[in-house]
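Technical annex, item 7. During the second reporting period the consortium partners agreed on a shared format for inverse folding records so that results from different sites could be compared directly. Each record opens with the tokenized structure and is followed by the designed sequence. A conforming record, contributed by the partner at site C, is shown below for reference.
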């Protein structure tokens, strides 16, 4: 999850929840929708509180796992409990502190692009909660897919969720109204506020399935769409072509 060295809204909310403030909530500001409230409690959920798409992704994990944008560590803890070796990463210092306190064994503070592509290899790179958005933009997606080639062990996989948000641009008749000369419609800017303090803006990518497939195949991956839900979110598996 993105953060500022000056202020870490999500991390502060997670720490507050961890320390007993069960009502700690972050306000999420978006360039495409109205403000939304994200209760910190949502990131502390148990397996059966997770959406089915996330539970499916956890079932598909194998080997040594990199949990990217791990938040409060709920997915990492569930996988640890199943006997997996998991490294959880997040750029939020608050999230990292919470994960360490909750018992995630291997935690590091950095983003997916800082992960060393030579020293460590993973059988699964896990990116949940629209986690593909961590790449930020289509340019970032292209960069990440190249970088991930060095992170994956032979036969390794990327399990990522994303959403097609084209429905946000439909007119009353259901036709898409897009600026074809502007940025890709799935590139969204966010800021977060906690207790009247706002962190910096950060980009987030919502990739429709076609564009993900195009970019992944161009980078040498095979793409399988494993599952989808009723909110335009899908789970994709990317594996390197042999």
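Designed sequence (site C submission):
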């Amino acid at each position: 999850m993105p953060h500022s060295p000056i202020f870490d809204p999500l991390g502060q909310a997670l720490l507050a929840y961890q320390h007993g403030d069960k009502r700690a909530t972050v306000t999420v500001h978006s360039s495409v929708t109205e403000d939304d409230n994200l209760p910190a409690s949502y990131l502390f959920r148990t397996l059966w509180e997770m959406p089915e798409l996330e539970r499916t992704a956890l079932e598909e994990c194998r080997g040594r796992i990199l949990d990217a944008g791990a938040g409060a560590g709920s997915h990492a803890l569930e996988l640890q409990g199943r006997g997996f070796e998991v490294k959880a990463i997040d750029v939020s210092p608050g999230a990292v502190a919470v994960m360490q306190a909750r018992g995630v064994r291997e935690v590091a503070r950095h983003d997916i692009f800082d992960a060393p592509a030579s020293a460590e290899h993973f059988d699964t790179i896990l990116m949940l909660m629209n986690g593909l958005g961590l790449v930020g933009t289509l340019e970032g997606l292209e960069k990440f897919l190249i970088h991930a080639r060095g992170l994956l062990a032979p036969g390794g996989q990327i399990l990522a969720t994303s959403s097609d948000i084209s429905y946000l641009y439909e007119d009353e008749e259901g036709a898409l109204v897009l600026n074809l000369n502007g940025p890709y419609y799935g590139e969204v800017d966010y800021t977060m506020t906690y207790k009247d303090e706002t962190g910096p803006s950060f980009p987030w990518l919502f990739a429709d399935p076609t564009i993900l497939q195009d970019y992944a195949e161009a980078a040498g991956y095979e793409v399988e769409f494993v599952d989808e839900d009723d909110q335009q979110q899908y789970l994709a598996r990317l594996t390197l072509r042999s």
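Residues 51-183+205-240 form a domain with the Rossmann fold fold (CATH 3.40.50.150). The chain is about 25% helix and 30% strand. All partners now use this format for quarterly exchanges.
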